[in-house]
Amino acid sequence: MAIRNFDALPYDLDELVIDSADDFRVNGLMYTDPRIFEIEMDRIFGRSWVYVAHESEIPGVFDYKTTTIGLRPVIVSRAENGDIHVLLNRCRHRGSVVCRFETGNAQFHSCRYHGWTYGADGALVSVPQADAYPRSFDKKRFGLMRVPRVTNYRGLIFASMAEDGPSFVEYLGPARRFLDYQLDHAPSGEIVLNRGAHRTEYRGNWKFQIENSTDGYHGNTVHESFWKIMHEFGNRGGQHGNYAATDIKKILKRRDSGFVYGFEGGHALLEYPLPETGLDTKAPGPQGDYLRALEAKHGRATLDKIMPQYNLTIFPNVGILLDQIRVVRPIAPDRTEVTIQLYDLDGAPEAVNRQRFEGYERFFGPASFGSPDDVEMFAINQTGLQAKEVTWLLLSRGLERETVDGEGIRIGHVTDETPQRAFHRAWKRAMAA
Amino acid sequence: MAALTRADAEAFLYREARLLDERRYDDWLKLFAADGLYWVPVEDDADPYAKVSLIHDDGLRREERVFRLLRTRAHSQDPASRTQHFVSNVEVENGSGDVYVFSSQLIYEIRAQGGNYRHLELGEQRAIAARCEHVLRAEGGEWRIALKKMLLLNRDVPIGNLTFII
User: Fold this and answer.
1) Band (A1; pLDDT cuts 50, 70, 90)
2) What is the count of residue pairs from A and B with beta carbons less than 8 Å apart?
3) What average pLDDT does range A239-256 have in this prediction?
4) CA distance A322 to A241
5) pLDDT tens for each residue of A152-189
6) Residue B123 is assigned to a structural domain of this protein
């Protein structure tokens, strides 16, 4: 039986997140205690809107991909009528997964154990030697369990295990605008996941990767190696984000300008602003063509809002970061899998997508010059937290200088811990419910 | 140049393996032709210009990689990996110009260079198996690598730190 509440634990939820006007701390146990992990799988992943796929991964009828919601194995499947279903990948007979492939096309999913067979919409269509079941046995009641709520937001498929609750748009709240900006980088408004994936795993808690994705404080130390490469070799080998300058002093100055945002729902954003010279929509060549296409569609004022460099995380475990979708998959309190998929901007000149591709490969992936140094931090974090007598991780940076705007968005300096606080406030709320 | 014999090919691969195991990365760079590629795909036959690779280094990216490993503080290689390459199953196909050398490689890796083995990610010995293809080209009386392609057995499943030179 899952541990379903904090009554079973020797401490209270209020002892895990300290949130006051001049203090914000989280307890190390939230990264190490397997009981917390179990409650998270239930209360965070069992209720939130969780990203499961992008439409472009299952374009055709009967296309599917398999993934997880927390630890639950699921199939994201396109039925004959084009509807997308998210089905628990668990035979209603005796519990086997019914689909063992990562992606594919199948009209039916047949359990390998005893042959129970389900349609792409999850309906149980056949049971071998069914006449031996009691007369009351009704196949209609034993389809693959459908994840009750599924939404398609501009091609991003999210699913929620909760029967009721806020719609996805309500759940996003004012973070929606920034998700739109990210997707509006594509002239057609659509992104395409056609570049394959990088998968990595690390020996640390899943929350470290989410926190880090909107952390503007770590880069100077963690990515020291990358800035030196930029300083030494320039951007010929692929530009990271919209860094035009490659002089290390200018890089560090730029890294000190920008904002972080914390949203009520636990979503978070890091923004590095446009280059000081502004967007050059007069530039010749593909980059100029690209900007001109966006300007024609959105107008200059909106273009200037779309084009900063954004890292957006949507609670609990997905990032639409810079040029990629990053899914953080918890496996155990100290084990996490991360899938990164670079996406193309539909309608952008080929040269623009190629440039994004080169910049991506230089910084991201398990053998790259950027993200492996982040992953290293998660392992040293997890190792250090074994010193359990030191209870707290401090997340109070910028607490007294952040502001709250009219929509309730907290906005901090780019190196503040505003995003991490937003995540943990939502985490605490979800865990308490 | 005369055709490459299997003994020549083995000597070439052994030397490359030793340079890597001794972290003589600057010398390793010199094994490549100027337009040579060092390629570790995720998908077997994917176009490396269309799909992300684990590694797809042209000359500049290789230089950056070696610079990073030898002359910057890269946390994922500090402490650094220690490797031991084992090379076997060598076959040679001489064509009209480039020579194809196929091999199997088993690479043991551990981050133990002064690191505390009790810390997560350190002190864990990993084995990486790879099917390798070297395309060699004669340049100024030397064999140079036009392509080094390594197809890792675990190329498309979650993979840990691959920041050393495989």
Assistant:
1) very low
2) 112
3) 85
4) 7
5) 999 999 999 999 999 999 999 999 999 999 999 999 99
6) yes
Which 3 state secondary structure label does DSSP give A17? strand
Cα nearest neighbour of A200 on chain B: B158
Helices assigned H by DSSP within A131-175: 168-172
A385 touches chain B (CB under 8 A): no
List A199's β-bridge partners, or say none.
Answer: A339
Residue pLDDT, tens place only, B77-115? 999 999 999 999 999 999 888 999 999 999 999 998 888
Domain span holding position A321: 173-273+308-432
Q: To the nearest whole angstrom, how far is the Cα of B33 from the nearest Cα of chain A?
A: 18
ipTM exceeding 0.90, yes/no: yes
For residue A10, the model assigns a pLDDT of 82
Burial A6-16 (b: 16+ CB within 10 A, else e): beebeeebeeb
B158:A365 CB<8 A: no
Total structural domains within chain B: 1
Residue B64: give its domain's CATH number.
Answer: 3.10.450.50
Is B115's Cβ below 8 Å from some Cβ in A?
no
Nearest CA in chain B to A364: B54
- Taking the Cβ of residue A243 and every Cβ of chain B, the question of whether any pair is shorter than 8 Å is answered with no
Please give the pLDDT value at position A2: 52
Question: Assign residue A380 a region: left if phi > 0, alpha if psi is -120 to 50, beta otherwise?
Answer: alpha
